[in-house]
Specification:
2 domains, six-stranded antiparallel sheet
Length: 487
C-alpha cells in the first residue's frame, strides 16, 4: 500500500515502543506546554521492565505527536527499573526511581523534565512510588504492593516525616502476597500503582485494583488486576472513600445472544493516572501485547470528571440525571485514543491497533497460548506494523473507531498472510453487525496486499471489524494492516 502509515491513536507511542506504567505530567519545556510520560521500559522481553527509563512528550494541543527525548535514567546495579514518578517543585524536577525491581526507591534530580536525572539519593519510600506536590507547597508520597502506604515528605523531597506515615489509607486486595491484617476489601482492594492527584479540590488516589469478586457486567472473573480505580478524600493522607473504576484494559465488552458479557482483549496488570490537558481530562494506562505481560504499550482515553452537590467525585464514563452526575463506569478501551473523531480510515492502519480480538472463547478463562494476539515489534521504524497472529476461524479483529469523512469508501485493502484458503468479511458498528464487504482469499506464501470492493455505502464514524473464516480451524491467518479506498 503506497500510503502514509497512521501515527498516534492507541497505542499513542510508535508500535515498536513499550512504555507501561505511564505517569503523565504537564510541564513547560522550551517555552511550550507539553505532556510528559514517565514509565517502565519493557525492553528485556522475557521479564518485566528494562534497564533504563526514556522520556516521551507531546505538545498539549496534539496528543498524537509524541517525541522521544531519549534515556533519562539508567540502572545502576544491572537490575530492572520498575515504575517511576516525576514531579516539579520550584525549578527542579524530581524523579522517584524504582530500583532493584522496585525493592528500593531513590530520588534523582534534573533542571529539565526531559532529564537526564542524576545524583540519586535513597529514600524510605517503597514499591511503585507516586508523589503529589500540593497547592500549599507540601508534598506527599504514596507507595505499596497489596497494601497502600503514604506519608508527608520534608522539603528536601526525600525524607518522610515519621509521624505522618499511614498504612492502608484504603483497603487492600486478597492475594498470596497480601497481609492477613483485617484490611482486605474484596471489591475495591488496592493492588499496586499508587498515583496521587488533586482533582476538583479533592485528594485522589488512582491505583491498580485486583477484583476478588466477579464483575458480570464486564465479563470479569476473579482475580483481575486490569483496572485503574480511584478513591478520594478531603485530606491528603486519611479519610479516603472508594470512588469506582476509571478504565479497564480488557478491550471492548460485548454482549452475547444469551446476555452474557465478554471482554475481547487480553487483560493484564495496569498502571497509569489522570491528567488535565487544555481543560479536558484523560486517563493514561497500558495494555498487553504478545503472550505475556512483558511487552506492554501506552494507551489513553478521554474521561469525564464531575462533583455532585454533596461532594461525591465521579470519574470515568458518567451518567447524568437532570444535569447532576449520578453514577460512573469505566471508559471504553478504544483504538482511537486522542483521535476523538476516529482514526483516518484512508491511511494505513496497523492491525496492532485493535481493541477487540475475539475468537468466540472466554478470554478470562482460556489459556493464553490458545488465542490470537498482537505480536510485539521492536525495530525502531515508524512504518512498522504490529500484526495480529494465531488467528483461528471465526475470529473478529475490531477497531473503535474509524473516521470515513463525508465520502463513502468503495474498496478496502488488507495486508495479510493467508495460511490457508480463507473467507474475510468487513463488518461495521458491531462485531455481529452489518457485513459491508467480503472476499475469498487463497493461501499465500507470505504477506500480500489484497484489494476488494465494498457492497454497502457508509460514511462518518464507525467501528470496523474483520472476520476470518476457514475450513481449517486453528492458525489460519496473520493480519498486518488495512486501509480503505475511494476508487
Amino acid at each position: 500500500m503506497d500510503k502514509e502509515f497512521l501515527k498516534g491513536g492507541n497505542p499513542y507511542m510508535p508500535l515498536w515502543e513499550h512504555v507501561p506504567d505511564g505517569e503523565p505530567k504537564v510541564f513547560e519545556y522550551n517555552g511550550e506546554t507539553r505532556v510528559f510520560v514517565y514509565g517502565s521500559h519493557d525492553t528485556l522481553k522475557k521479564q518485566y521492565c528494562g534497564l533504563d527509563y526514556v522520556a516521551w512528550s507531546a505538545p498539549a494541543y496534539d496528543l498524537n505527536n509524541w517525541t522521544c527525548h531519549g534515556v533519562c535514567f539508567r540502572s545502576r546495579d544491572g537490575e530492572p527499573l520498575f515504575a517511576p514518578d516525576v514531579v516539579q517543585k520550584g525549578d527542579t524536577f524530581f524523579m522517584y526511581v524504582s530500583e532493584a525491581r522496585g525493592s528500593k526507591c531513590s530520588v534523582a534530580v534534573s533542571k529539565s523534565p526531559a532529564g537526564p536525572f542524576t545524583n540519586p539519593v535513597e529514600t524510605k519510600i517503597g514499591f511503585d512510588p507516586g508523589v503529589l506536590v500540593d497547592d500549599d507547597g507540601k508534598q506527599y508520597a504514596f507507595w505499596g504492593f497489596c497494601g497502600a502506604n503514604c506519608g508527608e515528605l520534608e522539603d528536601d523531597m526525600t525524607t518522610l516525616k515519621p509521624d505522618s506515615i499511614r498504612e492502608n489509607p484504603i483497603g487492600h486486595c486478597d492475594a498470596p502476597w497480601a497481609k492477613k491484617d483485617g484490611n482486605i476489601d474484596f471489591e475495591a482492594g488496592f493492588f499496586e500503582a499508587s498515583s496521587p492527584r488533586k482533582i476538583l479540590g479533592k485528594y485522589v488516589l488512582i491505583y491498580s485494583k485486583n477484583y476478588n469478586i466477579p464483575v458480570p457486567s464486564l465479563g470479569v472473573v476473579p482475580n483481575n488486576n486490569g483496572f485503574l480505580s480511584y478513591a478520594y478524600s478531603d485530606s491528603p493522607l486519611t479519610g479516603y472513600i472508594y470512588g469506582g473504576d476509571i478504565s479497564f484494559n480488557g478491550g471492548e465488552i460485548i454482549t452475547l445472544p444469551g446476555g452474557e458479557k465478554r471482554m475481547t482483549y487480553q487483560w493484564g496488570n495496569n498502571h497509569g493516572s489522570l491528567v488535565r490537558i487544555r481543560d479536558k481530562w484523560f486517563v493514561f494506562y497500558h495494555r498487553q501485547t504478545g503472550l505475556d505481560e512483558y511487552s506492554r504499550q501506552a494507551m489513553l482515553e478521554p474521561v469525564d470528571v464531575a462533583l455532585d452537590r454533596n461532594g461525591r467525585l465521579f470519574i470515568g464514563k458518567i451518567t447524568y440525571r437532570d444535569g447532576e452526575p449520578v453514577s460512573s463506569c469505566p471508559v471504553e478501551m478504544t483504538s482511537q485514543g486522542a483521535f476523538t473523531d476516529g482514526l483516518d480510515a484512508y491511511k494505513i492502519i496497523s492491525a496492532g491497533r485493535a481493541c477487540h480480538i475475539y475468537d468466540g472463547k472466554n478470554i478470562a478463562l482460556s489459556p493464553k497460548s490458545d488465542r490470537p494476539y498482537v505480536k510485539p515489534v521492536y525495530d525502531t521504524d515508524d512504518s512498522i506494523s504490529s500484526p495480529v497472529v494465531n488467528i483461528s476461524s471465526g475470529t473478529t479483529v475490531g477497531f473503535r473507531y474509524l473516521d470515513f469523512g463525508d465520502r463513502c469508501p468503495s474498496h478496502v485493502t488488507v495486508r495479510l498472510n493467508a495460511l490457508t484458503d480463507i473467507s474475510l468479511e468487513v463488518i461495521i458498528d458491531a462485531y455481529d453487525g452489518e457485513t459491508v464487504g467480503k472476499a475469498e482469499i487463497f493461501k499465500s506464501s507470505g504477506y500480500t496486499d489484497l484489494t476488494f470492493p465494498l457492497s454497502a455505502s457508509f460514511h462518518g464514524k464507525h467501528a470496523v471489524y474483520f472476520k476470518f473464516n476457514a475450513i481449517k480451524r486453528e492458525n489460519i491467518a496473520e493480519f498486518d494492516s488495512f486501509s480503505f479506498e475511494i476508487i
